[in-house]
Amino acid sequence: MLESSPPISSTPASPDAPPVSENTPDVVIFVEENGGDWHAGRLARALELRGARTFTTTLRRCAFDTVSSTGLRIPGFDGTLPKGAFVRAISTGSLEEITFRLGILHALRESGVRVWNDARAIERSVDKSTTTFFFQRAGLPIPTTRTFEAIQRERYCHGLAPPLVSKPLFGSQGNGVRRLESWSDLPDAATVNGVYHLQEYLPPHRPDSFEDWRLFVSGGRLVAGMTRRSTQWVTNVHQGAEPTALKPDVRTAELAIAAAAAVGADYAGVDIMRTENDKLFLLEINSNPAWKGLQGVTDVDVAQCLADDFLAAVMPTLIK
Predict the structure, then answer these.
(1) Residues 106-134: pLDDT tens digits?
(2) Separation of alpha carbons 131 and 47, rounded Å
(3) What is the spatial distance between Cα 108 and Cα 254, in angstroms, rounded to a whole number?
(4) Calpha distance 248→225 (Å, rounded)
């Protein structure tokens, strides 16, 4: 149940849910402000069926407070803190607002709360240049990539040759992604907020078919995957790609798991592409991935897997 104000503890979604006791872990799910969240509802029910009590709120409703013995105020927790926090969304906002919300997550982790994903993983994933750095440091296959401020355009464009792909440093669902056939296609600096993130364009495995794979990783294991096929080179479902079920081979699954580990993500959506020479490349990673589309093409209950893995980290004795 999403909060109005104040937040309301969700009630057991099934008569099979165990009764609340002193051993019941209280966990919070952080969701998008002003939005019903299909994902949070599924996750809350799965957590309750596994013996947790859930509170749903948003990070913008939290506060730092020196009057509190914990130094924090989390809606639903009067002078205490949850055992675990599951982050579904940070919500959009100003630089100050986003910094504040990440600060809350940092503080929760420092206070002993198990946060999925914690602020470090989110920061490493949301910034594509930082993601690329951690992937490279882990020795994972990535396209040739260069990120730089617009004032250094002449210096750092040297040595790169179109076709290239320009991506916004922060963004998702394929929004703002452009293919550069020549340097005249380079977007204006204001369009990319003064920072260029350029990657080599990777030819598809088959010239007549554009596709990539979204693999969902949780707790160091592969949960499910889907292929996204499109008639255009941008293969996001929100851009019109068609999702179908995928059973990846071992090397693809291992690459997705390694990508999540490289940025320290407890759960993640990992995008992988196979090129014309049968090589695999990591494209991006999402530290707050949606799974409604994926759930539509897989028999795996994604929320159930997430609940099991999350609670195993929060209270290992609860999940056996």
Answers:
(1) 999 999 999 999 999 999 999 999 999 99
(2) 30
(3) 30
(4) 7
